[in-house]
Amino acid sequence: MNTSELQEIKNHYRIVGNCDALNRALDIALQVAPTDLSVLIVGESGVGKEILPRVIHDRSPRRRAKYFAINCGSIPEGTIDSELFGHEKGSFTGAIGESEGYFGIANKGTIFLDEVGELPLATQARLLRVLETGEYIRVGGQEIRKTDVRIVAATNINMQKAISEGRFREDLYYRLNTIPIQMPPLRDRGTDILLLFRLFALQMAEKYNLPKITLTDEAKQIMLAYKWPGNVRQLKNITEQMSVLSEERVIDAKTLRQFIPQDPESMQLAPVNHGGSHSYESEREILYKILYELRGNISDLRRDMNSLRKQMDDNSSIISATNNMQAMSNTTIAYQPSTEDAIAEEIKEPETLNLSDLGRQMVEKALERNGGNRKKAAQELGISDRTLYRKLKQYGLDNK
């Protein structure tokens, strides 16, 4: 592609930059646009991967059909199949009507799947079938439907690592990766950083009627040396912050350092584990703690229920004995309202007793029997020290 044609594309899509890696990505996008081959765009978050699918669609024979950009990471796992492939009426709660889904609506068009690495495995299987045969089935349906859709996908994760960890299907990866395009990170684009800064500064000045900010030579060197972990998105945010908050319109090194993070971690990229393995020790430990805590809570509830059941059995015996005594007294003595009221009051009292009252009584009794020793009391109750401490706070006994 000649320089003038490339510059025309950049002007049309407001793409700023002249680095070789960016030009190479645009060149591949324009070459693959007239075909129906699947494209996988790889690059860090914030590098501008969403521009290339639009270029591919607009330069393809499908440009007059629909184009949908879908962020796979923002759709809940429980509804993503319905969003992509549609659903039948009544197929799940809330499905009050039919839905075509993106693959039905975008027939003859293009679908851009951003963050494709976040798709659930079940959805990946459905997507693979569409790529291989053009066929899909709605959620809750049985009829096989056909669609003719061009797929362009993008991801910011290490796909090989995701495959080795079982989070992404290898066969789907190779289907999507027919034509790979690598978008360069901002730190590798050299003086494009300064060109982008000038663009963002000019946009802020025009939008909010502010004097445009500029950089000193020393500030420019800092901009070029910074790692930019957030890429173009981070550069735009910092430029907007300086445009609004800085009193000086000429940004020197001292002013710039107030807006660019200076701690070592922000100057480095996130570490990547190249070993292809992942340890779940910390997650397992957390699950064990939760299970132990639940076991203690269940034991407490079972003990409280047994105590309540015993109280109710005792009350039934009292009621039965009272009824017998009343029957005998009707033949031998006169009715005594005060005695009956007292018995009724005694019977009613346990009905107002709840689990919290029983639990409090049990804790108090256990502490009394162990001379206030919480550890021994917890052992007697069959719960952990931590659970006992929580119950003491719940019952207001922690200061006793």
On the 0 to 100 scale, the average pLDDT is: 83
The outline comes out as flat
Order of helices and strands: HHEHEHHEHEEEHHEHEHHEHHHHHH
Name the poorly predicted regions.
266-282, 331-353
Strand fraction band? 5-15%
Features of this protein?
single chain, 400 residues, alpha/beta, 17 helices, 9 strands, 8% strand
Describe this structure in words.
With about 400 residues, the protein is of the alpha/beta class. The protein is about 55% helix and about 10% strand. It has 17 helices and 9 strands. The protein has helices at about 5-15, 20-30, 50-60, 80-85, 100-105, 120-135, 160-165, 170-175, 190-210, 215-225, 230-245, 255, 280-330, 335-350, 355-370, 375-380, 385-395; strands spanning about 40, 65-70, 110-115, 135, 145, 150-155, 180, 215, 250. A 5-stranded parallel beta sheet has the order 2-3-6-1-7, covered by helices on one side. A two-stranded antiparallel ribbon has the order 4-5. A hairpin with a 6-residue loop joins strand 4 (about 135) and strand 5. The longest helix has about 50 residues, at about 280-330. The chain is flat. The N and C termini lie far apart (about 85 Å). Residues about 265-280 and about 330-355 have low confidence and may be disordered.
